[in-house]
Design goal:
Elements: E1 2-6, H1 12-22, E2 28-31, H2 33-50, E3 54-61, H3 65-77, E4 82-86, H4 91-102, E5 109-113, H5 121-128, H6 132-145, E6 150-152, H7 155-164, E7 170-173, H8 192-197, E8 202-205, H9 207-210, H10 215-225
Parallel strand pairs: 1-2, 1-8, 2-3, 3-4, 4-5, 5-6, 6-7, 7-8
Bound molecules: cytidine-5'-monophosphate (C5P).
Length: about 230
């Protein structure tokens, strides 16, 4: 299991300083909407120049197939190791994206977002007229059949994703609260033991690390348990 730290910080300098503080640790860094919209490729280049961190660019793309495939091709030109799209964009979009990316010499891993970890079952049911497990199962199957590399889901769906597809199909699980921290806006939260039992390949942790007084110490503690 790998630790992926969400860099959802308020400025370029705060992100770079956090990367410097975490230098040398075996972890991935997740650059999300806030940081990427503000700082763009410059932030990714700066982080990569600090250490050989793997970068997950979490933009959760959702559009028509050709627009998504164009965007993914642009992202493949940046030195990032993983990107993601919304599974609800559908199979045509996924197949178009993977056809385009597989034609390149090198491509990032591509994950599909199933159900955001900020949804509880009631809110999800009202929007999508089905329960989370059913939706995750369907989304996982079409993502796997389309040649993607894995899913973003909560810990509670990680086993279901693997059972519906393949045990090597990656699960990346946000909503982790390692030491009983506040859930904040997350609904389907879990701890590290639970993530392990459910075979998560990546755990994503943001606020419990970057809001801590000693982020490096927290990361080291997490790394000893995973
Ligand atoms: O601060 P926290 O640990 O809740 O951060 C979780 C991160 O994972 C955020 O950057 C959020 O955008 C992202 N994420 C999520 N749920 C998903 C997909 C991504 O929380 N389903």
């Amino acid at each position: 299991m790998k630790l992926c730290v969400a860099f959802d910080l308020a400025s370029f300098d705060e992100c770079v300083n956090l990367a410097k503080e975490l230098k040398g640790l075996d972890l991935w860094i997740k650059i999300g909407l806030r940081s990427y919209l503000r700082d763009g490729i410059k932030l990714i280049e700066s982080i990569k120049s600090i250490d050989e961190f793997k970068i997950f660019l979490d933009l959760k793309l959702y559009d028509i197939p050709n627009t998504m495939a164009d965007a993914c091709e642009e992202l493949a030109k940046i030195d990032v190791d993983m990107i993601n799209i919304h599974a609800s964009a559908g199979k045509t979009a996924m197949v178009t994206i993977m056809d385009r990316l597989n034609a390149l010499n090198k491509r990032p891993l591509v994950l599909a977002v199933s159900a955001l970890t900020s949804f509880d079952n009631d809110e999800f049911q009202n929007l999508y007229h089905q329960g989370i497990p059913n939706a995750v199962k369907n989304f996982s199957k079409i993502s796997y059949e389309s040649g993607l590399d894995g899913m973003v889901c909560s810990v509670y769906e990680s086993l279901l994703v693997k059972e519906s597809t393949n045990k090597n199909f990656i699960t990346l699980t946000p909503g982790i609260r390692p030491f009983k921290e506040e859930a904040n806006d997350q609904k389907r939260v879990a701890n590290i033991q639970c993530a392990k039992e459910n075979l998560s390949d990546f755990i994503v942790i943001g606020r419990p690390i970057y809001k801590a007084s000693e982020p490096r110490a927290i990361c080291q503690e997490i790394l000893t348990c995973i």
